[in-house]
Amino acid sequence: MPVTHADVVNVLQPDEIDYPNAARHLSAEAVPILAEIAAGPDPGLASKAASLAGFLPGNAASVILPKAATHPNPVVRIAAAASIAHHAELLELADHLAKDPDEGVRRWASSSAHALRTQTPN
Questions:
Q1: Which parts pass through the membrane (predicted)?
Q2: Are 67 and 38 in contact (CB under 8 A)?
Q3: How much is the pTM?
Q4: Contact (CB, 8 A) for 104 and 71
């Protein structure tokens, strides 16, 4: 059964989301929808899409987080910056966000970049 925009919004609507569980239940079909939401006008949904991206496997975060990282609302950029900590392939994006005009974005991006640089390889 195809994943619809409404299906993804329903996952993001609750105030408290179990992100690891939500990530396990969404298919790859949800990735472009999450990217669209992360770039969209609703900062609440956009920040949740960015937060969820941090828990998605594969390259999903590489599709979603760059869009969230350019959102005009700093809350969304903070969510993107925090989610980068789970994805070593996005270290360059963390470094870019570490120069953001918003202090909160800079702090989370710096924290994510530090975490990625100090991770021990598996």
A1: none
A2: yes
A3: 0.93
A4: no
* Residues in Cβ contact with 59 at an 8 Å cutoff, skipping those fewer than 6 apart: 89
Q: What integer is the mean pLDDT of 67-76?
A: 98
Among candidate residues 106, 42, 115, 101, the one with its CA nearest the CA of residue 80: 106
| 77 contacts 71 by C-beta, under 8 angstroms | yes
Those residues whose C-beta lies under 8 Å from the C-beta of residue 3, and which sit 6 or more positions away, are: 26, 27, 29, 30, 33
Whether the per-residue pLDDT at 2 is higher than 90: the answer is no
Which parts of the chain fold into alpha helices (H)? Answer: 5-12, 19-25, 30-38, 43-53, 60-69, 74-83, 91-97, 103-118
CA distance 97 to 112: 10
Residue 115, token pair as written in the block = 């975490």
> Residue 109: which of 98, 117, 119, 118 has the closest Cα?
98
Say how far apart CA 95 and CA 98 lie, in whole Å: 5
- The residues spanned by each domain of the chain are 5-118
Whether the predicted pLDDT of 78 surpasses 70: yes
